[in-house]
Automatic annotation (TrEMBL):
PANTHER family: SLR1258 PROTEIN. This is SIMPL domain-containing protein. GO terms for biological process: DNA damage response. It holds the Pfam family SIMPL.
């Protein structure tokens, strides 16, 4: 009889503890479901801090030696023009000319072209003096005085503006995005008669850098979205 009572007591205590653990388990499980997922957006407009400007011009002729001398002289004129305007040697690079033999490009009965060789020359300016280069782009017509016509319109030779100082503004933007996410979470908690708890998970989205618009590619819009999970307390 004594052993039976002991076993009964042990069984009763075990059932009681099991009930407590089950209750706590359900409570914890319910608390895990009380999470609000919010996103925070931060945007900033910044001026481009790097510009790549290809100066492209064409040369036509029938004699390669004469064309070589002409191109060499034109390159020297362009480089001198750029330096006089405030650019440095290290910001200017000269590419090898691209030569098209028009005679080799003829098909069938196509009339013979007036000039055999069509040469494309490119001098590229890469600089952090964005405002200076923007001014020079509008002044490039001065080269016409030297018989050099800078051409445009080809996609691969477009002026490119970049923003390379993202690390300087990252902390500020992440802070702003996180603040905006918390404000959204607090509003949700208030509407659901809850209190906002701690951060359960946080995800920093990818930063994107795009032109503000098609007319001002030298002004960039930086954007980031953070995703944060907050717990909700009663």
């Amino acid at each position: 009889m004594k052993n039976f009572r002991t076993e009964a007591i042990i069984l009763a205590v075990g059932m009681l503890l099991l009930g407590v653990f089950i209750e706590r388990g359900f409570s914890t499980f319910a608390e895990k479901d009380r999470i609000v997922n919010v996103k925070g957006l931060a945007e900033m407009e910044v001026p481009a801090d790097k510009v790549t400007w290809p100066l492209v011009y064409k040369s036509l002729g029938n004699d390669l030696n004469s064309l070589y001398d002409e191109i060499k002289k034109s390159n020297q004129t362009i480089v001198q023009f750029l330096k006089q305007k405030g650019l440095e040697e290290k910001e200017i690079s000269i590419s090898a000319p691209e030569i098209i033999d028009m005679k080799a490009e003829r098909y069938g009965s196509t009339p013979a072209p007036a000039y055999r060789y069509n040469v494309t020359s490119v001098i590229t300016v890469t600089s952090d003096k964005v405002d200076l280069v923007r001014g020079l782009i509008s002044e490039q017509g001065e080269l016409l005085k030297y018989g050099i016509a800078i051409v445009g319109g080809e996609y691969r030779y477009n002026v490119q503006y970049e923003y390379t100082s993202l690390n300087k503004i990252k902390p500020q933007m992440i802070e702003e995005a996180t603040k905006n996410a918390r404000e959204a979470a607090e509003k949700f908690a208030k509407d659901s008669d809850s209190k906002l708890g701690k951060i359960m998970h946080a995800y920093q989205g990818q930063f994107s850098i795009n032109d503000r618009d098609a007319n001002t590619p030298y002004i960039k819009k930086v954007r980031v979205v953070t995703t944060i999970d907050y717990s909700l307390d009663n």
